[in-house]
Amino acid sequence: MTIDSDDICPVILLKVLRAFKEAKDKDEIIVKSKWQAVVQELDKWCRETGNEYLGWNKDGEKYVVRIRVNKGE
Which homologous superfamily does the CATH classification assign to the domain defined by 2-68? Predict the structure, then answer.
């Protein structure tokens, strides 16, 4: 599942939460954003929620963050 958004971080986090609700255990969520803060915010979110932060890279002007869903199923 990929989220490609130029919204500000709070809006991106809401989109991640929606994607998380739809995702199955071990699914991967990819977030692409021009906002650098998304890297730190999603790392923090993963630590707080028990999901796996797989890292990030830069693709042109966008930061690409990968998350693995851990629903404990």
Answer: TusA-like domain (3.30.110.40)
